[in-house]
Amino acid sequence: MGRLGKLAGLTALGVGLAVLFRSAAQRRSRRSGRAGQPDMATRRTQRSARLASVTARTGADYAATRARSVLASPARREALAEAFELRTAEQVAEELGHMKGALMKLGQMASYLDQGLPEPVREALAQLQSDAPPMAPELAASVVEAELGAHPDQLFTTWDPTPLAAASIGQVHRAVTLDGTAVAVKVQYPGVADAIAADLDNSEMLFSMLGMLFPGLDPEPIVAELRERILEELDYSLEADNQRLFAEAYRGHPYIHIPEVLGDLSTSVVLTTELAEGARFAEVTGWSESERQLAAETIYRFVFGSIYELHAFNGDPHPGNYLFRPGGQVTFLDFGLCKRFTAEEVGYFEEMIRLIVLERDVGGFRRLIERIGILPDDSGFPDSEIDAYFGHFYDFVMVDEELEMSPEYSSESVRRFFDLSGPYSEIMKVANLPPSMVVVQRINLGLYALFGDLGARNNWRRLAEEIWPFVDAPPASPMGERISEWRSEQR
After folding, report:
1. Assessment of whether the complete model's pTM goes beyond 0.85
2. Cross-strand pairs, 158
3. Is 218 part of any domain?
4. Is the pLDDT of residue 401 over 90?
5. pLDDT tens-digit map of 59-112
6. DSSP label of 354
7. Which residue of 57, 190, 262, 470 is surrounded by the most CB atoms within 10 Å?
8. Which residues 6+ apart lie within 8 Å of 444 measured at CB?
């Protein structure tokens, strides 16, 4: 399939989703159009109309591009396709940035999740990773005043009305408290809860469509899990609790930094934390080889170490949530989307690793994933196929040698979840994703993509065995030795 043909498929999908959103909103609008209750339906219809508008423009643009390409030379067709990619991505990024909510989060994820996206598309969507159109300064100040009882100019000695960052649910302002502490104040957009509720209503239909594409997928528990996690993000008091959990565990850590929460200046829609400084991810990709490797090791240790030490998982790995300093020091931001695991769930993760990685017992691994619902009972797949498909997700810890998590590995991981045209289509058609693993897979795929951008290279097996409590190997690197010393000092 040619480049323009692939774009046609994406355009058709976009138009189809917009029609789906629009028809759903219109049905709800008709149901909710009673006197005195038009606001929510109107907002939903407006959001759907924005999607329909951009996809209609994209469809017309595609038709015109295709017509111009008919008699064009191969080089000219390539140039036309590249221009179409860029225009389309910029239009979508602009609309999602203005819409906020769950749909903007979708655009954020798309920008870093798959290294296989055309570069102009990734670059345009990357605008959503840390920057989006902010709310008016007066509106942000009014939210703070309503929540904390006074105007920001009275609550803080310094208040910057221009946000440091604006994202899908809220924006962050720099301020200085009355006692001189530099802080970051996250203010939730008014009305974003309604917008996300509308998006999640539509997402149920999208997951029903996924159920048709992947017959083995049970969409209901996945929708319920994502709905619960995303709705939790709207309650900044829950985020504060999550952040306190991580801050307590990593306080004084030589590489991992979590800003402290200021509870007396926080509510369910305003969150005040210590201000953190550091370089953004885009800058770090241009740092020296040694610095990039240290940054990647710290992220790896934080993400996977937290699962086993805290039974908790920070589930939003997009690049805007990291700040970097030389020497491998990383500040982790945004704890709105966290998953806390039961001891039984963590036990499943450990047993899966033990069977397929440490013991290479593929038959035992197959029986385990049938028991916990990833595959149906007695699925009938030979161990060789199970190993070929599922073993990919453990490749980087399968051998005791230095490996690079390349962009190609990241893209292949995404394809093994979503590409039914590949050699593993039969397994994919019957495979299911238990709710407890939904957020895990989101951050796994996102993490691999970030490591691909960093060119992350390590002996991941030795690093993992140090982190896995069921192995508890000695430090695998100088960073591990320093962390071990720090832990000894805490006792």
Report:
1. no
2. 176
3. no
4. yes
5. 555 556 555 665 667 776 666 566 655 555 555 545 544 444 445 555 454 444
6. I
7. 262
8. 393, 413
